[in-house]
Amino acid sequence: MPDLLNSVLATPGLIWLVLAIGCAGIVRGFTGFGTALIFVPVAGIFLSPQHVIAIITLTGIASTSALLPRAWGQANRPEVGILALAALVTVPAGLWLLDRLDPVTIRWIVAAVAATTLSALVAGWRFSGQMNRPGLLAIGAVAGVIGGLTGLTGPVVILFYLAGQSAAQSVRANTILFLAALDFVIVSNLLLRGTVEWPTVALAVTLAVPYFITSLIGQSMFDPKRERLYRWAAYGVIGLAVLSGLPVWGSGV
């Protein structure tokens, strides 16, 4: 136990990781999304992509216990089930790419995915059509690949839901439920591959504490009447995280 504690305390940029996960928890609590978009670019400065993905998914599972009960009753579970089923199939492809691309390339992919998602949302892109089952399967499949490769489990589905016409409460519940399912799928794959080590688990557990607390704080702040405020607050935090995580600033890995 002392060795694990020492390994956590010796983590490069630990204070920045705690601050990033704390901000991410608040944003996810009141919007239902944003954890990976905020944490992954910052964590990529200090940790390898493999460690970032393991930590973000493990802490994601921890926060689910705070947010899932309310979201379960408000989400469109059949629709989220289709998305999750497709992601289940494609996550291994993303993890396969993770093993074959160098860390700097992955950091650029993270920045590109996050920036593209943010730009589309800020620009007010709207999906006004009806999404059929093949479309949902395609969205879930792409989300699985990107989640396995970068740890950004939500951007594809977030863009689909937030750019659409659904109410804030429905968007929040659906994204919470899908992200919980995808986190579980990725962690299961990592365990089967034997790539999750105890120091990584210890760091994830440590970060899960402020994440759990701030998720509850964010959830208590949620008010459907303030949907626009929540979205723009989330956009600002995500944009700051993307800029700070650009590979041009160097790396602590």
TrEMBL record:
GO cellular component, as recorded: plasma membrane
Intracellular or extracellular location(s): Cell membrane
Keywords: Cell membrane, Membrane, Transmembrane, Transmembrane helix, Transport
Membrane spanning residue stretches: 14-40, 80-98, 105-125, 137-163, 175-192, 198-217, 229-250
Principal subcellular localisation of the protein: membrane
Classification via Pfam families: TauE
Membrane topology: Multi-pass membrane protein
Family: Belongs to the 4-toluene sulfonate uptake permease (TSUP) (TC 2.A.102) family.
Protein name listed in UniProt: Probable membrane transporter protein
Organism per entry: Roseovarius litorisediminis
